[in-house]
Amino acid sequence: MSSKIWPDRAITVASATHPAATTETETLPAPAPELDDAVEADAHLDRPWNVVLLDDDHHTYEYVIEMLHILFGHSIRKAFGMAVEVDNTGRVIVWTGHREIAEAKREQIHEYGADWRMDTSRGSMSAILEPAR
After folding, report:
1. Are 64 and 112 in the same domain?
2. Cβ atoms within 10 Å of 63's Cβ, excluding its own
3. Are residues 13 and 68 in the same domain?
């Protein structure tokens, strides 16, 4: 006997052993995914992502404050606090939200440019994405 099964498509079953056998076609619904798989997939799509600014020695506090104010709309006070945190801990979460927007925010950091206040600054700061907890 030969059979092919495709979700949401007709399946054909024919007997190869009997020449007068008829072929029947029937449409069956696709099997439902297990609940855990569906919930996990939805959670992955909806999960918020952090944009994490990484510290370096080639950008001033003024640069960090200015960048965070311009790119993310943080107040000067909040941006200053983030500058202190990135300097002390090596990293700071500067934004959290949907992954596509987080990717765009990270690119904005990478494209912001060098710190004109420092001769050793050769480019933008670095940032990474990580799933929010």
Report:
1. yes
2. 21
3. no
Quick one: 51 and 90 in the same domain? yes
From the list 11, 21, 81, 29, the residue with the least C-alpha distance to 53 is 81
Whether the CB-CB separation of 88 and 64 falls below 8 Å is answered with: no
17-39 residues labelled b (16+ CB within 10 A) or e (exposed): eeeeeeeeeeeeeeeeeeeeeee
- Do 11 and 51 lie in one domain? The reply is no
Mean pLDDT per 10-residue interval, the chain, length 133 residues? 40 45 52 53 74 97 98 98 98 98 98 97 97 95
Domain that holds residue 24: 1-30
pLDDT of residue 109: 98
